[in-house]
Predict the 3D structure of the following.
Amino acid sequence: MLGGSITEGAACNDPEKRYANVVLAWWKRKFPQAEFELVNAGIGATGPDFGAMRVNRDLLSKFPDVVIVDFAVNDSNTKDHAESYEGVVRQILNAPQRPALMLLFMMRKDGSNSQNLELKIGTHYDLPMISFRDAIWPEINAGRLRWEQISPDNVHPNENCHLLVGELICSTLEKAYKKFSHEDTPVASSTIPLPLISDSFEFTSLLDGESLIPLANHNWVFDGSQKRFAGWKSSDPGSELEFEISGRQIYLSCWKIKGPMGKASVSIDGGIPVIVDAWFDQTWGGYRYMFQIGENLNPGKHIVRIELLSERNQQSEGNEFRILSLGSAGLLN
């Protein structure tokens, strides 16, 4: 499973009722003599850009046979996210073990998601797709179902909703099981088509946690106390940090939260800097904020320079900045 907080199981306290585990239970029932491992690579508040950079590390390195991807809520209808979503798909389909891939489209309280864009990509690669939105939204519109019955907030499914999502997936698996249980059923070709939009996110890199090693460092400290959010932090304006990374598109991820957070200036190869604000105006907690700091760069290595600024959001009471990762796309294959 690859996705965001819904995949991870937020708002569903019982792990066995999360849709990933419901799907696992189906496989165990169908093949009681087989051994199974569930790899849940969901990370809250992350989209297909970060997904494309970590899919090999977090998912494909475990050699999965079947993969379900859901970024329909955390995705956006932009060319950048379309490229990264297609990159996730292409990396999975091109993995040596040739895993089967299914796309899942969840939704927000208002019925919105990015499935229109993702449907085009799924159709291009002839993938099975399940739209939770198309199954549930008509029921909500007709008044036969209230959002509050399936979610405690604007996004995350509750336990009953996770069970429903699991049933939708399992019904599709059941159809496939009946179809392919016959020996004369033809096997699909392992050759995937040319990219619909781009293959730039098929070739990515990620410097994350302990692999994020600076070329130069002035007054930044590495904090690995929380492995998932390990990174370099500073609260001292004027602190500088430099990294080297290859790629034509470069992204930086920082910790964003409503707290004593500051701003940083980020530049590539001495170019025009991007100002990043780590202060967040919401109260539900912090999240890994990933943003593009360079695009259409020349192939090869680039120097990323980060400087902590003295200026900060007027509602913030501090200057802390925490760098979590650097990622890139558009590597030469």
Remarks:
- The helical segments are 5-8, 19-30, 48-58, 79-93, 115-124, 132-141, 159-180.
